[in-house]
Structure formats: C-alpha cells, structure tokens
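Let us walk through a complete example step by step. Step one is to write down the protein sequence. Step two is to encode the small molecule, zinc ion, as a SMILES string so that its atoms and bonds are unambiguous. Step three, shown after the inputs, is the structure prediction itself.
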Amino acid sequence: MSTFPGPIEEIPGISVDRFENKENLSASVYFLSHCHSDHMKGLHNFFIENLEKKNKFLYCSEISKAILNAKSNLVKSDMIKGLSALSPVVIGFNREKGTTVFVTVTLIPAGHCPGSVMFLFEYNEKKILYTGDFRINANDFAKIKPLHDCDGKNLYPKKFDKIYLDTTFLRLEYFKIPTRKESVDEIRKATKDWLNLDPKNIVIMKLPYNYGLEYVFKDISIGLNKKIHVKDSVYEVYKRIKEIGPYITNNANSTPLHGCLLFRDFRGCLPCRPDVDEKNILAIHISVYKWGGNLDSGAFISWDEVKERQLSVCYSSHASCEELKAFLKYFPASEIYPCVLPKTAEKQDAIYALLAEFSKKDNQKVTIDSSYEFRFPKAGSSGKVNFKSMIFSDEDDD
Ligand SMILES: [Zn+2]
Ligand SMILES: [Zn+2]
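Step three: the predicted structure of the complex.
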C-alpha cells in the first residue's frame, strides 16, 4: 500500500500518484503510474474539474487513461493525457510565480497491471526514477533502453540521482516469490483437474483487485481453450486491449471460468451464476500476503484445512525482495526513497537497513524519512490498444 505523499522534491511543481491534500492540489502538473486505489487518492471529479479550471494536466499511460474513461463515476476530461511508453516527451509547466520549466519524462512499462508505468524524469541534469508498483524480471533490465546511457558503442545502466522505489516486498520474509509462470502453472493444473471431474464444475479465481491478473487470465484461457468471465466494467477496458480481449467474456453463462469477484466479496456462491450449486464451485484465492515467511519451503499452494474446495495460490505482481536487490544492483542510485513504508518504526528500520545493504556503494546515501525489446501500447485508429507491454519474460524463467 503506497505511503508516498506525491511531490517529487527534486522537481518542484510535480505530484505523482496523490491528488488530495493542499500540497498535491497546489502542484502544477500531475502523473498517475497505474489505476490502483492507493495510487489514486483524491482522483475524483472535484480534482478533475479543478484541472480544467486551472488549465493543468494529468499524464498517464494510454491504458490508464482508458481505464479512467471507463469509470462511470469519473468525468471525462481533455486535461487527462495518455502518453506512449519508451518515447521521451518534454513537458513544460508554469510554476506558481509564473516561471515555465521543462522536464523530460519517459514512461517505462512496469509489469504490474494493465497500463502500469514507471516515470523517468530528467530535469536540470538530474535523473529521477519513480517506479510506481512494479515487477520486472532481472533478465529484462538490459532491454529497457531508456533506462540506459550509451557511449556510441555500449549501453550502461543510468546512474540515478534518486529512485522512488516500490518497497512493498522489501522484507526478508518475501525474499523469494514464485515467478508468475510458476504461480499460473499451479492455477491452471488445479483448474483443469477440477473441470475434468464433473461437467457442471465451475472455477472462480478470487481476485485481490480488479486489474492486475490479466497474465493469469490469458494463460489459463489459452491452456484450457475457454474464456474467463469478468465483470462488465473490467470487460469494457480489457476488450480494447488486443492481448487480453480474446481471452475474456462478459457472458457469465458461456464459460466455467470466472474472474468476476474480489475475494472480499466471495460468499461461497457465484452471483453471476445463481444456477450453480456450491458443491460444484472450486474457489482459488490468488494472493501473496498469507505466504509471508513461508515461501522458503518452496510450497506456494495450499488447500484450506477447514473449508472444502478452497485453494490458495501465491501470486505477486510486485517485485520480490530478491528482485528488488537485483534492481538496485543493476541501477545504482545516489538516494533511494521507499514508497511503501509499514506503520511501526521497527519495521521501517528493517526496510532502511535492507535498502542500505542492497545499494551499498561509495557516496551513496539512503533517505531516512520516517514521516510515513519492450514495447508499449499505442491506441490505434480503431481505438484498440496494442499491449505488448504485457510481455512478462518470467514465462521462460524456470
Ligand atoms: Zn498497484
Ligand atoms: Zn462470473
């Protein structure tokens, strides 16, 4: 859960992933890394109307813009701009005192959920990376060319002045998390076995959030040659995305595979299919949190000991602690800001200690602030979005 307050202190006037308090509202330009609620605090109609009144812009990926547009409770606005990834853009904005400044911004696919991006800000010789939530396989770091400098012959990882880092799993109890492929293989196997037992059987994948499991949906759908039922609002977004659209449906009766419920809403039955008997439902809980501290054993699926037909599978769309270590070794930074901090001082200290250890180099410091070929979508003329950013190469990672 992001605890990042919004302002990028090296570039006054910019606010990222926070749109609510006085400090955010007085910013001159806004950025949204992805459409999860902890990154959208304050992103309501009041905020959007204020953009229009004050002639300010909010920048995000084209898919995030499509998700915002699909939300029936949000007004649509030309002040929300969808940008292509991997193409640097120069954004000029006026600060309060009337001076105009220019910042070069590059969106980097973050591998976390549809449309999720990192922001590379280059300003006054400073290179700042805001990762947002991310999970990128270490084998792919070298493919992200905008995060490298070159000398005419070779590419070198950029040396950042500061990285604002997704520290969700910067905890030793999450050092190793199964790759997406390992997790999906288990889900697919359990699903197939259950469907083979009885033609009336149904599988529901209980979700931690509405957007973020499209890799699971695609792989399960291909493996079983059936579509996944998703709720209407999610369908409206996914149907525009070429790489997910073919694998999902809004027709609940057409498939035994359902990804239409958040786990907090599951009551043993399937609201979209009241005709289905509970005894025919296998519920798969897709999450990572219940596994903290237990992942060393290598076991990452478990059947509920009390309730029948309840399977839990560990799956993460955030980088594991080991992956964060690899990221910080590959991309050196003079300073690192942890964007996800636990509440207690003791747990915060543990995060700072790991950051110090993983990024130890001469002249490096860690901020102590306890106050709390990769391509990307381009909307075509058809309104369809090319979603090659969803190439998660841990598909090949065994
Ligand atoms: Zn997120
Ligand atoms: Zn359903």
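Step four is interpretation. Residues 167 and 340 are 5 Å apart (CA to CA).
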